[in-house]
Structure to design on (285 residues):
C-alpha cells in the first residue's frame, strides 16, 4: 500500500510538472515567435541612416530618428508623472488607509481605471490637459494622458510590493521609537523598490506602444525638427508605425517591419534597464 501510494504521488507530481511546463511553453512560444518574426522581417531595414535620419517622402525614405526621440521623451514623461503619484497612493492604501467605504471606493476605482479603453483616456487628455489646462496638442499633454492610463498599474504593483515586505520589519522599527513615516521611508520602501520598479516598467512599456491616446493629444506623422519644449508636438514610434502601415500607399514592407522592430527594441531596452536596477538593488541590500 505504501509503495502504491508513493507511486501515485510520483505520477501526480510528474503530471503536474508536465502540465505546468506545457502552460509555460504555450505562454512563451507566441511571444518568442513575434519577436523572431519581427527581427526576420524588419532586420534588413535597420541601418545607421534609418535610425539617425529624419523621414522623407511620407516615411518611404529617410529614417525614424524623431520618432525614436519622441518615444523616449514620452516614456520618460509618463514615468515622471505616474511613478510618484502611484507610489504615494500605494503607500496610503497599505500603510495609512482604514478599511472603510472610502478605501473600498478607491480600490474599486483603481480596478475600473485599468479597464478603461485607451481611446477614452485620449479623449480625457484632450479635454482636460490640451483644452482645459491649455497645454495644447503637445508632448506634455500626451505624457500626462499616458500617465493617467498607467496610474492603475503603478498603484496596484506598488501596493503589492509594499504588502510583501514582512510585518516584522515595521514592528521592529516602531519598537525602537522610529516614527511611522521614517519606517516607511527607510525600511519599507527600500525593500519594496524592486517590485515598484517592475510595476513601473510594465506600465511604461505598455504606454510606449499606445497609439489611440497620443493620436488625439499631440502626435504628428512628420516633423521637420525634434521637440524643443514640452509644449511642442512630437513624433512617436507607435503612431508612425500605424500611419505608414495603414495610410501610406506603396510603403515598403521592410520599412514597416523596421519601425516595428525599433519599437520593440525601445521597449526591451527599458525592460533590461529595469532588470539591471532590480538586480543592483537586491545586491546592495
Amino acid at each position: 500500500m505504501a509503495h502504491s501510494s508513493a507511486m501515485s504521488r510520483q505520477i501526480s507530481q510528474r503530471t503536474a510538472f508536465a502540465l505546468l511546463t506545457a502552460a509555460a511553453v504555450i505562454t512563451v512560444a507566441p511571444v518568442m515567435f513575434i519577436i523572431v518574426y519581427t527581427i526576420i522581417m524588419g532586420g534588413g531595414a535597420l541601418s545607421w541612416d534609418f535610425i539617425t535620419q529624419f523621414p522623407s517622402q511620407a516615411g518611404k525614405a529617410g529614417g525614424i530618428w524623431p520618432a525614436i526621440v519622441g518615444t523616449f521623451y514620452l516614456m520618460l514623461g509618463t514615468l515622471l508623472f505616474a511613478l510618484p503619484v502611484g507610489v504615494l497612493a500605494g503607500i496610503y492604501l497599505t500603510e495609512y488607509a482604514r478599511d472603510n467605504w472610502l478605501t473600498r471606493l478607491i480600490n474599486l476605482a483603481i480596478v475600473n481605471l485599468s479597464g478603461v479603453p485607451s481611446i477614452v483616456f485620449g479623449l480625457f487628455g484632450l479635454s482636460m490637459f490640451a483644452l482645459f489646462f491649455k497645454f495644447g496638442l503637445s508632448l506634455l499633454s500626451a505624457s500626462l494622458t499616458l500617465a493617467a492610463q498607467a496610474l492603475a498599474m503603478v498603484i496596484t504593483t506598488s501596493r503589492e510590493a509594499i504588502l510583501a515586505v514582512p510585518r516584522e520589519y515595521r514592528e521592529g522599527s516602531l519598537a525602537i521609537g522610529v516614527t511611522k513615516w521614517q519606517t516607511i521611508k527607510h525600511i519599507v520602501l527600500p525593500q519594496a523598490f524592486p517590485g515598484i520598479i517592475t510595476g513601473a516598467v510594465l506600465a511604461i512599456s505598455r504606454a510606449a506602444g499606445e497609439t489611440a491616446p497620443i493620436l488625439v493629444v499631440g502626435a504628428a506623422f512628420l516633423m521637420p525638427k525634434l521637440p524643443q519644449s514640452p509644449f511642442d508636438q512630437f513624433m512617436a514610434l507607435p503612431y508612425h508605425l500605424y500611419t505608414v502601415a495603414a495610410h501610406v500607399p506603396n510603403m515598403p514592407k521592410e520599412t514597416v517591419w523596421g519601425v516595428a522592430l525599433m519599437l520593440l527594441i525601445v521597449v526591451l531596452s527599458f525592460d533590461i534597464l529595469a532588470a539591471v536596477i532590480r538586480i543592483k538593488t537586491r545586491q546592495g541590500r
About this structure: The mean pLDDT is 85. The beta strands are 55-56, 61-62. The radius of gyration is 23 Å.
